[in-house]
Amino acid sequence: MTQIIRHDQTPEYYFQERCHIAELLNSSDCPGLSIARARVEPGVTTVLHAVRGADEIYYLLSGQGEVEISGQTIGTMQPGDVLRIPADTPQRITNTGNEDLVFLAICTPRFEEGRYVEIS
Question: pLDDT under 50 in the chain at which residues?
Fold first, then answer.
């Protein structure tokens, strides 16, 4: 079904990854893709994790964040930057700024909670 999904139709919730998530598009009607808006508070580092069987793309909307992939810091993202994280890759991001870090997390195929793997 074709429709406009309004931002106020997707309430934000706190996820175990230590960030706030709003599922903008995540439906079995669209199995190849999901889009979530993630918000990380200043000074917070997300939990080291991987997304099983799905590539994840970050598109940074506001703030700044230092990205760690497979145990290596690869750099600091700024608004407009894009990062592709291959499926099953350990990852986390730290909000290094004074404002919320906000980015789109786009998964292909779509994110399902069973894909999330916390890494000790």
Answer: none
Q: Do residues 101 and 93 lie in contact, with contact meaning Cβ atoms separated by under 8 Å?
A: yes
Instruction: Find tokens 């906000």 and name the residue.
Output: 102
**Tokens found for residue 58:** 């970050």
The residue behind tokens 């996820």 is: 15
Q: Rounded to two decimals, what is the model's pTM?
A: 0.92
Instruction: Decide if 96 is inside a domain.
Output: yes
Beta strands in 1-120 (DSSP E): 13-15, 19-25, 34-40, 49-51, 55-62, 65-69, 72-77, 82-85, 91-95, 101-108, 116-118
- Examine residue 13 and state whether it is found in any structural domain, yes or no: no
